[in-house]
C-alpha cells in the first residue's frame, strides 16, 4: 500500500510538472545566493510612498562569476544598488545594460519588463535590493528566455 501511494504521488508530481509550461521552459538561475535582511508586510496606508498591501523584502544578492539570475520579472517594483562588481542586465530586447559599483537599479514590474542579471566578470556581483511586491506574490516569476537570447 505504501509503495502504491508513493507511486501515485510521484506520477501526479510528474504530470503537474509536464502540464505547467513555465516549469519546462523557464531559465534556471545559477551561481546565486542571497541573504534576507527584512521581510515584512506593510499595512495599507502606513507609509504614503509605499503602495497599499505590499510585501517588502530587503536582500543582499550575490552573483558569482559566470552566474545568472535566469530570465524573470517581478509583480512589483524592485530597487537596488550595485555594491560590488558589474551587472549585465539585458531586458526583453536582449540589449545589455551595464550596472557598475554604486549604480542604482530600478526594475519596473510586470511581464512586459522581463530581464536577466548576469555576472560576466571575474569578481562576484553584490546587490542590495528591496522588493515591493503585492502581498501573496512571489519575489519573481520565472519566464522562458526571449527569442533574441
Automatic annotation (TrEMBL):
Quote the Pfam families the UniProt record gives. Answer: Cupin_2
Q: Which residues form the Cupin type-2 domain?
A: 61-127
Q: Which UniProt keywords apply?
A: Signal
Q: Where is the signal peptide?
A: 1-26
Checking InterPro entries in the record gives:
Cupin_2 (IPR013096), RmlC-like_jellyroll (IPR014710), RmlC_Cupin_sf (IPR011051)
Q: In its keyword annotation, does this UniProt entry include tRNA processing?
A: no
Q: What is this protein called?
A: Cupin domain-containing protein
What organism does this protein naturally occur in? Rhodococcus sp. D-6
Amino acid at each position: 500500500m505504501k509503495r502504491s501511494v508513493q507511486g501515485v504521488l510521484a506520477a501526479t508530481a510528474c504530470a503537474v510538472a509536464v502540464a505547467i509550461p513555465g516549469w519546462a521552459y523557464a531559465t534556471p538561475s545559477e551561481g546565486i545566493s542571497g541573504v534576507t535582511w527584512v521581510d515584512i508586510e506593510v499595512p495599507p496606508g502606513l507609509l504614503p510612498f509605499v503602495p497599499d498591501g505590499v510585501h517588502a523584502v530587503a536582500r543582499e544578492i550575490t552573483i558569482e562569476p559566470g552566474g545568472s539570475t535566469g530570465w524573470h520579472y517581478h509583480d512589483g517594483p524592485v530597487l537596488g544598488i550595485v555594491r560590488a562588481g558589474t551587472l549585465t542586465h539585458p531586458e526583453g530586447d536582449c540589449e545589455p545594460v551595464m550596472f557598475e559599483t554604486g549604480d542604482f537599479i530600478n526594475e519596473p514590474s510586470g511581464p512586459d519588463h522581463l530581464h536577466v542579471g548576469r555576472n560576466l566578470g571575474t569578481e562576484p556581483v553584490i546587490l542590495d535590493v528591496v522588493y515591493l511586491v503585492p502581498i501573496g506574490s512571489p519575489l519573481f516569476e520565472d519566464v522562458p528566455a526571449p527569442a533574441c537570447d
